[in-house]
């Protein structure tokens, strides 16, 4: 029996179950696209903050909102611009933080809700502060690694020697090291 293209759902056109709550829809799409659990957690955090930021006040009456919550389907480009500008102006977040929030909201609207919007024009961008990198000298590094022993010392040497990130080192098992 030959398999045809109609047997599989295309990766780009995945539609989450509309009967699920928004959080479950986001989870379903991210699992399908094989996002990491950390990315899923971070993106959901930004989506939640976006909804809390635009929560209806007690004086407003919204027929489709539940206890003042405005569903993201009722919001769009303007609300995203206001939220991202708020992050830069009031909360003074870093450029990378604002970009992560933007990516989470673009993912929500494009991949989960299938409501892409055009370019964002009226967004106040966060400013990158000049930063001088901190680098240990060879003597300082030797002294630091010598002061560490046991499991933490082994992990620190492995992270430094192999150029691993912390989570990569923590998830490492004996089998891949052989």
Describe the protein in words.
- The chain is mainly alpha-helical and 178 residues long.
- It folds into two domains: 11-112, DNA polymerase, domain 1 (Orthogonal Bundle); 138-177, no CATH class.
- 52% of the residues lie in helices and 0% in strands.
- It has eight helices and no strands.
- The longest helix has 18 residues, at 95-112.
Task: Write the topology of this structure.
Blueprint: H1 22-32, H2 37-53, H3 77-89, H4 95-112, H5 138-147, H6 150-162, H7 166-171, H8 174-177
Quick summary of this structure?
The protein is an all-alpha fold and 178 residues long. Helix content is 52%, strand content 0%.
CATH superfamily of the largest domain: Tyrosine recombinase, N-terminal domain
- Whole-number total of structural domains: 2
Which radius of gyration do the C-alpha atoms yield? 22 Å
Counting helices, strands and paired strands, the structural category is mainly alpha
Determine the CATH topology of the largest domain.
DNA polymerase, domain 1
Order of helices and strands: HHHHHHHH
Uncertain residue ranges = 1-11, 61-65
The number of distinct helices, counting runs of at least 4 residues, comes to: 8
- The appropriate CATH architecture of the largest domain is Orthogonal Bundle
**Overall mean pLDDT:** 83
Distance between the termini: 41 Å
Strand content: under 5%
Labels describing this entry:
single chain; 178 residues; mainly alpha; DNA polymerase, domain 1; 2 domains; 8 helices; 52% helix; extended
């Amino acid at each position: 029996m030959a398999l045809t293209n109609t047997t599989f759902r295309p990766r780009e056109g995945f539609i989450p179950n509309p009967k699920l709550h928004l959080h479950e829809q986001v989870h379903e799409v991210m699992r399908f696209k094989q996002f990491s659990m950390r990315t899923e957690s971070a993106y959901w955090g930004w989506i939640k903050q976006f909804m809390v930021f635009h929560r209806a006040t007690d004086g407003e009456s919204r027929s489709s909102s539940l206890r003042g919550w405005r569903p993201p389907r009722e919001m769009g480009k303007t609300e995203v611009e206001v939220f991202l500008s708020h992050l830069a102006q009031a909360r003074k977040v870093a450029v990378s933080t604002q970009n992560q929030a933007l990516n989470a909201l673009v993912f929500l609207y494009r991949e989960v809700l299938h409501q892409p919007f055009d370019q964002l024009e009226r967004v106040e961008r966060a400013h990158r502060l000049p930063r001088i990198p901190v680098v240990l000298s060879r003597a300082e590094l030797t002294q630091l690694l010598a002061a560490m022993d046991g499991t933490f010392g082994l992990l620190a040497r492995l992270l430094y020697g192999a150029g691993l990130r912390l989570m990569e080192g923590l998830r490492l098992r004996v089998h891949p090291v052989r």
